[in-house]
Amino acid sequence: MSDTHDHDQDAGHPGYMRRIRSFVLREGRMTPAQQRAFDEHWARYGIDYTRAPQDYATRFGRTAPLVLEIGFGNGEALAWASEHDLARDFIGVEVHGPGVGRLMNALAARDASNVRLYKHDAVEVLEHEVPAGTLAEARIWFPDPWHKKRHNKRRIIQPEFVALLASRMAPSGLLHLATDWQPYAEHMLEVMEAAPAWRNDLGAGQYAEKPAWRIETHFERRGLKLGHGVWDLLYRIA
C-alpha cells in the first residue's frame, strides 16, 4: 500500500482536517483474470463508495466483530486471515485494481462469505462510510514508507489520521501496524505514543513480536532474506 496527502479541505468534514490521501495511484495493468473478477465478483465482494454510512451487518448478513485492513496489496494476508478467523468479518481497502481483482478471485475460489472490499481512498472510507464505534480491529501492514525526508509528511500514520481512526473503533479496539523500514517504525511509535486516544498494548514505547495472525508474506520473506527488520506495533483504544 502507498500513502500520501494533499491539503484540500473536505467541506463535508466538520472543522479543518488536513487531507491525507492513503495512496498514490500507480494502477498497473490488470490481467484478463483480474478484470474478469470485477465483472463477475464485484457485485458480491465489492462495496461502491457512496459517501454514506454503511450498515455492515446487513452487508454480511450477520453481526460479528469487524476487522479493517487498509492497503491490502495483493490480498495474500487478508485472504489468509479471513479463512482462519471465520468468526469475524473483514473489510479491505485498496486503490490498486490488480490487487483487488486478484483477491476477489481468491475469495470466490473458496466461496468466502466474510470479506467485502473497497477500491477507494481509505481516508474517505473512514470519514464517510465507517460509522463511529464500528471496528474491533484495524490493520495497516507495510504502508508506503516515503523514504525521502521531504516526503515523510505523506505517510498515512499521522496524528490527524490516527485520531480519525480512533473515532471509528469499538471499545478496546486494536490497531496493528507493521513496517520493514526502521525510520517509519520510529515515526509510527512517536505518533502513536503521543496520540491521546491510544495506549500501547505492550507498555509505553514498546514494539511487539510478530503476532500469529499476521502471516509472513512473500514480500516480507524477501525483505528478511535481504536483512531487513520488521517492526510490529499494537495499540488499543485508551
Question: Topology, pairings included?
Answer:
Elements: E1 4-5, E2 20-21, H1 32-45, H2 56-60, E3 66-70, H3 76-84, E4 89-93, H4 97-109, E5 115-118, H5 122-128, E6 135-141, H6 159-167, E7 169-179, H7 182-193, E8 198-200, H8 218-225, E9 231-237
Parallel strand pairs: 3-4, 3-6, 4-5, 6-7
Antiparallel strand pairs: 1-2, 7-9, 8-9
Helix pairs in contact: 1-4
How many beta-strand elements?
9
**Biggest sheet record:** 7 strands, mixed
Q: Separation of termini?
A: 27 Å
State the helicity in percent bands: 25-40%
Cα shape? globular
- Regions with pLDDT < 50 over 5+ consecutive residues? 1-18
Q: What is the tally of helical segments?
A: 8
Based on CA atoms alone, the radius of gyration comes out at 17 Å
Strand content: 15-25%
Structural class: alpha/beta
Strand order of the largest sheet: 5-4-3-6-7-9-8
Report the average pLDDT across residues.
Answer: 88
- Secondary-structure element order, N to C: EEHHEHEHEHEHEHEHE
Pathway: tRNA modification; N(7)-methylguanine-tRNA biosynthesis
Pfam families: Methyltransf_4
Family: Belongs to the class I-like SAM-binding methyltransferase superfamily. TrmB family.
Function: Catalyzes the formation of N(7)-methylguanine at position 46 (m7G46) in tRNA.
